[in-house]
Amino acid sequence: MKLSELKASGHPKTLFSSFLYFDVSFMIWVMLGALGVFITQDFGLSPSQKGLIVAIPILAGSIFRIVLGVLTDRIGPKKTAILGMSITTIPLLWGFFAGNTLPELYMIGILLGVAGASFSVALPMASRWYPPHLQGLAMGIAGAGNSGTLFATLFGPRIAENLGWHTTMGIALIPLLITFAIFIFLAKDAPTQPAPQPLKNYFKVFAYRDTWFFCLLYSVTFGGFVGLTNFLSMFFVDEYQLSNVQAGDFVTLCVAAGSFFRPVGGIISDRVGGVKVLTVLFLIVAACMLGVSQLPSLLAIIVLLFVGMMCLGMGNGAVFQLVPQRFQKEIGMVTGIVGAAGGIGGFFLPTVLGTVKELTGSYATGFIIFTVIALLAFVILLVANYSWKKTWNLKSDAMKI
Fold this sequence. Notes:
The chain is mainly alpha-helical. The chain contains 20 helices and no strands. It has helices spanning 4-9, 12-29, 31-34, 36-43, 47-75, 77-97, 102-116, 119-127, 135-143, 148-163, 165-171, 173-186, 199-202, 209-240, 244-260, 262-272, 274-292, 298-326, 331-360, 364-391. α6 runs antiparallel to α8 (119-127). The longest helix has 32 residues, at 209-240.
């Protein structure tokens, strides 16, 4: 496989636009997590409240992903993305000019979920331009918009340290508006955009067992990635007494692993099959989270989280190498549903970590729970693979399951 094939077989400007839209939106989606230490200090939140504040945008994103997934299939990804970016300006302006009470923070978090729903638009937009043997690479590149978290965790705490978290949210409008302009001029809906169907037809995918398999798998890979992304800053400050900026830097390092290795997961899956890749990754994630639960030295935990987040990122790419193979006509809706499941997983992880910390006084049990979840995902994958071997049309070599 050559990168030059992407140019010959698809639309590079749209692929870039999809990545950029997802990247900036993802940065905005996780802002409350990146600024969580500053926000919790202002409001004096308990550990469970900390987990809830950073988890709300993730849960809201899950709901909006289904909505934007349907819109992507009905009116096209370009119009849907423009609508999503327009709505995303609202919570940023709200946080900039107000956001002084806890109920306001909850509402800001809910509206930030629209940015997280960009996933349901960016990936189908890229996918429809490329043939099956390039799905892993194309979806991996578009999905590498996860790297937006790097900007949130690297620059967010630094700006907030000097200008405050309210101003930081206002500054985030600048890259959003630049992306908005670029997207309008460069992005283009694929000619393979399916004709709109009756609304009830989109929800028929809930009746397929494969939909639920993908949801369960992605709730662990993406849910683990985004859940840790939003919570680790507070974890480092509480457990290792790091400064706010130091915590953000270490989170950035871990997030970089997951973000930049997502395309790698897709590329490897194109070659050997997504199921084989996921089988190995779930076992490594379980081992890493078990190590983290021991709360070792700072250096050791950074290594464990780096490897664990890298595997979760690759897992995201592997799952979405498989999804377009199974659901081609309903890719927008299915992406929304599977993405929603990932968001729900991302909601529960920080909530569990914060609640367990409050109940036991330690984060250890929370990471043990995540270890068990990764092992359960491994078992679910084996069951799903057994079913897929019987029911899938295996004409595409890219499946290799």
